[in-house]
Specification:
The protein has 3 domains: 95 residues, MurE/MurF, N-terminal domain (Udp-n-acetylmuramoylalanyl-d-glutamate--2,6- Diaminopimelate Ligase, Chain: A, domain 1), CATH 3.40.1390; 226 residues, UDP-N-acetylmuramoyl-L-alanine:D-glutamate ligase; 156 residues, Mur ligase, C-terminal domain (Protein-Tyrosine Phosphatase, Chain A), CATH 3.90.190. It is built from 16 helices and 26 strands. The strands form 5 sheets. The protein has an 11-stranded mixed beta sheet, with helices on both faces. Helix 12 packs parallel to helix 13. It is globular, with a radius of gyration of 24 Å. The N and C termini lie far apart (59 Å).
Amino acid sequence: MKELDQIISGLGLSHVSGPREVVLTGVTDDSRRVAAGNLFIARRGTAKDGQRYVADAIERGAAAVISTHPGVGGEGVSWWTIDEPGAITAEVAERFYDRPSEQLKLIGVTGTNGKTTVAYMVRHLMGAAGVKCGMMTTVEIDDGVESRVAELTTPGACEISRALARMVDSGCEACVMEASSHALDQGRCDALDFDVAVFTNLTGDHLDYHGSMEAYAQAKAKLLARSKAHVVNLDDPWCERMVDVSSAHVMGFGLGDEREGTRWRAQLCGVGTDGTRARLEGFDGVGGEVTLGMLGEHNVYNLLGALGATSACGVGLEDWSEAIASLRGAPGRLERVSERDDAFTVLVDYAHTDDALRNVLRALRPVVPDGAKLRVLFGCGGDRDMTKRPRMAEAACGLADAVVVTSDNPRTEKPSAIIDAIMGGVSEADRVRVRRIEDRAEAIENIIRDAEAGDVVLLAGKGHEDYQIIGTQKIHLDDREVARGVLEGLR
């Protein structure tokens, strides 16, 4: 518990009504999570204003409220106002939980693709070195006490600090977390003390929110501006934009020839159905060829970023080879659904941008036997960045032999309209090998039933997600479950 004045001092708040001295039991900006004695911060969101939920928070037992303007009711509640409650939420949360981000080696991972995989890799490598490491990703939050399903790529500021505090209490020495462009833009990470920032890459996504690639890059760069050390993919065209934001120490990584500033690099040696071989240089304790049990050049980049982050934290082993060999990807990232003795291979991946889809298909192409086909199924989310829809089709048609375009999370858009937009990226010559099947479960069944011996089938876009959003409702749909059911019927 904390006294209210301890966590709001110097933040420019104006007292409106109620007692000034209050002992708080918790802090939240989600009225649904308010418990007796909590402070409720009514911040403005992108779609809704927290001011609308003050009455609900008070009814649930809030002892104090911070909002943009005073409301009615709440006798005995300590009420404070400020123009932008969201601007102080992260600082208030860090103060309440005794600044847990300062008590951990905190690694933030940002970029369009690879964030989740890098985070899983960092946690694994840290554990191999005997360092207990918490994690916050799109897939799960592991606070050292329990692992639970994540609701957002990056949680709200109050949830972040609460989770970090649980990590400290459970004996974690480090934490790796994804930092999404939305979270960075909205200030959810503004009070966190990052030791290391990892930049993976930047390609077109979320332009419905950011408006331009420059604004998107600017949001990502906020993580690097807050960190003490930068681990940056120097092969990405946006790398200079990332490292220009502060004077922090920059450690670069890349593939192929050495570039100025490159500390760690790798050369791809070969790809097989069971993994990727690469030669690493520049890491203490890592020399020569290693085997990564994950497919593709993009995962070598992910490995470099994870090794770089671990090294930048001062963590090392005499020999990382065994730790690297035992690495496995995050759920839904090139996850095999078929059995080893099935006639063909079925994989599920979260790739939902054209660049991610292109990377995954490039990773799979070398493992497709001569005479067999690389087949891909994908869709695009509704009410989201529309510019990538035709680009997704171009990526699929450019690398796959057979393509099925289907529904993803249509939300409030008509699935047929989304598919029409995707098909705008399909040339007349390619239309003969592209099918559109609106129902996703039906589409999965069709692409698997069409597969022949040696084929590789990729179900892209949903990955670990076990739901589909239609309208405003979530319905259960797991690509992996559907695929396993079809495969079982074929055996």
